[in-house]
Each structure stands twice: as structure tokens, then as C-alpha cells.
Amino acid sequence: MLEVQRLAKRLGRVQALRDVSFKTRRGTITAMLGENGAGKTTSLKIALGFLRPDSGAVSVGPGIVGYVPDRPAFLPGLDGWTILGLSRVRGGGREASGNGRGFGAAVLAAARSLLFDPSLLRRRPASYSAGNAKKFAYLQNLVLAPDLLVADEPYAGLDPPSIKRVRDLFCGLRQAGKTVLLSSHMLAEMERIADSFIVLSQGRTVAHAGLREWRLLRSGRTGPDIESVFLRLAGP
Amino acid sequence: MLEPSLFALSWRVTRRRLSGSPLAALGALGLPVLVVWLGVVESYATAAKFFYFLLPHVFLVAAQDAVRSDIDSGALENVLFVGGRFRGYLASKGLALAVAVSAYATCLFALISAWGLAAGAFEPRSVVRFALALVAGLYYLAWAGALSYLMRAGSNVLAILLAQSAALIGLVLSTTSRAGLLDYAATGRFPGLGPKLLFGALTALLPNVVVSARLSVFTAEVLAGLVLAVLVQGRLARGLEIRHS
Is residue A48 within 8 angstroms of chain B, CB to CB? Predict the structure, then answer.
């Protein structure tokens, strides 16, 4: 669904990416791990078309790409319903219900599934709390019905019940044959749901492993838990 | 590059921003109020002259909505703009603004024309002057739009207004030593290259001067400037990356 090859990118004086390559498979959840400044967000932004690579290539399979940024922001002056309506146009009205009432009902159902108060939709997202802005970003993506969902720090700002709902959302998407790519520092949470792992360090891909390989890395030979494996891979 | 869905999005955003901006409302309503007042205390002809001369500034005031603010707010790093669609959105935003302000200007023109016809003072030449005022207005939109890639909300318009003020002050001060520049402009005949170049520089800053319909060379300059500004905006949009995080 998404393949990036040998990405390099300089941001000002910083060589943000040196050699990043990875691939995500359809119907899987991939976790991208790395320390601060490892190049995770830059890699995602290049894959999503917000940045251009200095070298390397990105290939995205057919279908709609969704994106939930670390700190979501929305066009000012528009209320939640209006933004969702515009997202619906972007998605080509692919959500389950075609007519306006059906769309409204689908949005309300999705909002409840994310523990998002639907009455907030009448307000502008700029007035939402960080957690509600994040949930609204997921709602906006659900309206689009993406084939590939990319989320940067997927649980940032969310409370534990909401984290569970978002985790269920990822698993539901995988079950429906969609692809999910998550960039996170929450190692245990990633290991709980991910099918494969990408580890970045200093702008390079240092590991790209499936669940089985990842568990081998986790074996007693290398380290007893995911944190040890991560530190061993990403460490100096 | 211009997708219909992006135009729908930018149209909605532009409409909301214009209706929610007190400065844009002041610019849009201030002109008809001034024109009516001039028509009442002076004459329709005077009111019409002011209308055509000041109409481009309605465009300029509306152009305060800045690209840089959108970028810095992080709003372009949204799922709506994945795949580089933010570039198409910015292009369609400029188009939506041009359509919205041109439509408003056309409504004002229809009203002032109806007033002129009722008073028996309407001149067919006014249609040409209106068209030239539209060109000057679009020139403002295009350059203010290009500047807005670099400057935050409102400062693009402020920069143009300050440059205009400086040019006008310079013109007033230079009338003692360079008497005749405004006379040349009034007749449309310039005695040499120097005054022509000087007036060309003034036209670049204050394209309103072309609405007199006597300055075809300078009208061509404004048209060329408009095309150039659109090309500059296209280049800026193509090179744009969203680095906000």
C-alpha cells in the first residue's frame, strides 16, 4: 500500500533523513518507532506529500489516504459539521450512507464510537481541547473512509477510555482490509496491536521486522522486553 | 491543479472569512457609502469618478487573508490536503477570492449604472472604466496573494498601502520640481522616457490610475504585472512545503 525507498531530506542545517526505506502491507498495522529527532514525522510528511524528499521515492497504492497529525489543526472559521461535510466531498461520498440524513447518522455513530461529544460539532475545532481535537481528526478520517490511515502519535492527548476506542478503530480497519501506519513512542501499546515494526535512528531505517522477527529480537538473547529491543536498536 | 472539490472548499472558507472580517466589511461598505454621499453633495459624475478610482482598493482590502497564516497555523497539514493538495487549495483560494470580490464589484457597478441611467448621466465609457478597475483590482489580489506567502495576516496589504503612501508623498513633494507628471497622466501624453518610467513605477504601486482609460501603455503594464504575479504565486505554491509540526 505504501512503499518508501532511500529517502533523504535536509531541513535547514539538519540532515533529517539519510536513508529511510520501508513498506506497509495491505490489511496490516505497522508501527514506526524511533527516538525524538529520528526522522519519523519527516518520513511520514514526505510519504503524505507535505514535504518533498531531496532524494528517494515514495509509492502509494490506489485508494484514499487518511492522516491524523500529532497535533491536529483545522481551517479556521469553519465549524465541525462543515469540516466533516468538506471531508465527505474529498472522500467522494464513500461513507456508508449516501444521503444527508444518513451521513449525519453515520457521523453521530462514529463520534460516539470515539467517545466524542457530537454537540461539539456545532463549534469550531479551534475551541476543542487537545484530546477532542485528536478525536475530531479521527472522525474526519472516518468520514473519508481511508484505505491507508497514517497517524502520528496516535494516542497523544487521549484519555485511557479513548485510547481503547482508537485502538479498536485500528483493529477494525485492519479487519476490513485497510492499512494502518502508526508513529509512536508508546512501545507497549504498539506491540499490542502492530503486525510489523520499523525502527528509525538518526534518519536511517535500522530495523524493519514482522511480528515474528520482532519477537525473535525480543527473545532472551537480545532483551527481555520491547523497550530493551528498541533501546538496543535505536541506541548509539 | 484546480479540482472542483478544492474550489468548493476554498469558496466556503473565503466566504466565511470575508463575512467574518470587520476590515473587509468596512472596505466593502465604505465605498458605496462614500459614493452615495458624493453623489448627494456633489454630482453623479464626481461620485462615478471616485467609484471607479477606488474600486480596486476593495480588492486590496479583501486580500488581507494570508497564505502564511494558514501555513503557520498548521491547518494545511490536514487530511484534506494529503498528497500535495494544499498547493491546489491555495491556488483555488486565490481564484475563489477573485470570483467573490469581482461578483461584489459587479453588483456595485450595476447599482451605480442604474443610478446613472435614472439620472440620465450614464456614459457607455463607464463599462470600459469598470473593466479596467477590475483588472487593477485583480492586480492587487494577485500581488497581495504573492506577498502573503511571505507575510502574515494583513501585513501583505499593509506593505502595499505603505508603499503607495510613500509613492504619493514622493509625488506630492516632487510636483514642485517635476511639475507636469499629473498633467501628462491626465492627457495620456508623456514628453519623454523619464516621466514615462516614473509614471510606470507609480502605476505598479497604484494601478488605480489606469481606470481613466487614457493610458493604454500603463494598462498593458498592469495586465503584464497581473500575469507575472499569477506566475509568481504558482511558483511559490509549487515550491511550498509544510514544515509546521
Answer: yes
